[in-house]
């Protein structure tokens, strides 16, 4: 088999036209350093920060073209935001949240307006202890993967754990946990959660055919979520991890309001682009008085599988700096790792399949930090978020 070289990859990438369809990504100088290890290819493409979503097809095309090169065992392509003088265009001052200290009061009954946030004021789920949301400003940053591995990490602490897949637009728990089939119904109404690896799980993915396009309107979203929360025989759980839908729009805000959350974890990649969105996520939970448990930097750095050498090719450290700046805990950095992806996509979280790996330990550490915050109980106030 011929050796894969950077030149071969670059030649292939010349078929990918740039964001403005003038020239190709290589000639435009948008491709980062290319890293090849074990016949797997890693690189990023720089795109304008305000057009990240629109550039997703470009990313997919680049990834596919590289995978098509004979001998390539895998490709991982990410988008990186263009930096303009250290700040990206959609990071303009007027779009920044105003200083909030303490969290902005919400139009809520007077009883809630005093003292620290009172997330438990909403009706809880009987038998379920703490409910923790895992959220991200945008899709594809590894939110669901992180949710699952945090859940397994919490289990490793001896806790009974459930996962509620609230991403009704793109449920991924059936795939990530290798669960198929439909939940049984008890008494015609209450569903039994599905389970695997000792985790109880409910997901819209169990209830509708995979191919069914799901078009949700506001009230349906809430009724689906309520059904998955309250019409499921969860039994006794110490903690429930809620995989939120990506984004920080109205739908997410409503969900965050409806679920009695003990706190929220934000997952972000180190790139500016994802960070800008993460900041919106922080602000969203702030609005609904849900304590922020911290930020996880996913796909933070890259460790070459052959040499074990570490490469900070994706701008590692961005989320940590942001967490410090915003005064929220930094929960940990998870490397970009082919094994995490492959296992996760094969329905076996790395924390289950390779519990002794350093990556599994990172997730367990994150889970321990999360748990120590929520189980610390009433003595610990939510961190104050101060936007400069
Ligand atoms: P989201 O829930 O944010 O849309 P997913 O958890 O579905 O993201 O992850 C998107 C893709 O990235 C999946 O293919 C997943 O396996 C992969 N992925 C997530 N985290 C990592 C990581 N740390 N290293 C490598 N691949 C990852």
Automatic annotation (TrEMBL):
SUPFAM superfamilies: Fe-S cluster assembly (FSCA) domain-like (SSF117916), P-loop containing nucleoside triphosphate hydrolases (SSF52540). Transmembrane segments: none annotated. ATP binds at residues 137-144. PROSITE patterns: MRP. Residues 81-90 have a biased composition (Basic and acidic residues). Residues 80-122 are annotated as: Disordered. Keywords: ATP-binding, Hydrolase, Iron, Iron-sulfur, Metal-binding, Nucleotide-binding. Gene3D superfamilies: Fe-S cluster assembly (FSCA), P-loop containing nucleotide triphosphate hydrolases. Residues 6-77 form the MIP18 family-like domain. Binds and transfers iron-sulfur (Fe-S) clusters to target apoproteins. Can hydrolyze ATP. In the N-terminal section; belongs to the MIP18 family. This is Iron-sulfur cluster carrier protein. It comes from Pseudochrobactrum kiredjianiae.
């Amino acid at each position: 088999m011929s050796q894969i070289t950077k030149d071969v990859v670059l030649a292939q990438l010349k078929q990918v036209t740039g964001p403005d369809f003038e020239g190709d990504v290589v000639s435009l100088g948008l491709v980062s350093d290319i890293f090849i290890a074990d016949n797997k290819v890693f690189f990023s493409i720089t795109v304008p920060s305000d057009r990240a979503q629109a550039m997703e097809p470009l990313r997919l095309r680049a990834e596919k073209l590289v995978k098509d090169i004979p001998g390539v065992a895998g490709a991982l392509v990410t988008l990186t935001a263009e930096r303009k003088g250290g700040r990206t265009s959609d990071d303009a001052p007027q779009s920044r949240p105003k200083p909030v200290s303490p969290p902005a009061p919400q139009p809520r009954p007077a009883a809630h307006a005093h003292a620290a946030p009172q997330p438990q004021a909403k009706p809880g789920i009987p038998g379920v202890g703490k409910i923790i949301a895992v959220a991200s400003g945008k899709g594809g940053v590894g939110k669901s993967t992180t949710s699952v591995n945090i859940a397994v990490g919490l289990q490793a602490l001896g806790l009974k754990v459930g996962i509620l897949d609230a991403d009704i637009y793109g449920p991924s728990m059936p795939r990530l946990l290798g669960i198929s089939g439909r939940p049984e119904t008890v008494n015609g109404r209450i569903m039994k959660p599905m389970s695997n690896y000792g985790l109880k799980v409910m997901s819209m993915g169990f209830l509708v055919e995979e191919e069914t396009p799901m078009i949700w309107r506001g009230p349906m979203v809430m009724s689906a979520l309520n059904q998955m929360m309250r019409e499921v025989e969860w039994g006794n759980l110490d903690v429930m991890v809620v995989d939120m839908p990506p984004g920080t729009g109205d739908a997410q805000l409503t969900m965050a309001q409806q679920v009695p959350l003990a706190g929220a974890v934000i997952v972000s990649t180190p790139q500016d682009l994802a960070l800008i969105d993460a900041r919106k996520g922080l602000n969203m939970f702030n609005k609904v008085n849900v304590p922020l448990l911290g930020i996880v930097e996913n796909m933070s750095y890259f460790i070459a599988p052959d040499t074990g050498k570490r490469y900070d090719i994706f701008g590692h450290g961005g989320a940590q700096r942001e967490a410090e700046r915003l005064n929220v805990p930094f929960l940990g950095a998870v490397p970009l790792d082919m094994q995490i992806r492959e296992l996760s996509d094969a329905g076996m979280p790395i924390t289950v399949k390779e519990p002794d790996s350093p990556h599994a330990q990172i997730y367990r550490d994150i889970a321990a930090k999360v748990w120590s915050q929520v189980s610390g109980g009433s003595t610990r106030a939510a961190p104050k978020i101060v936007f400069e």
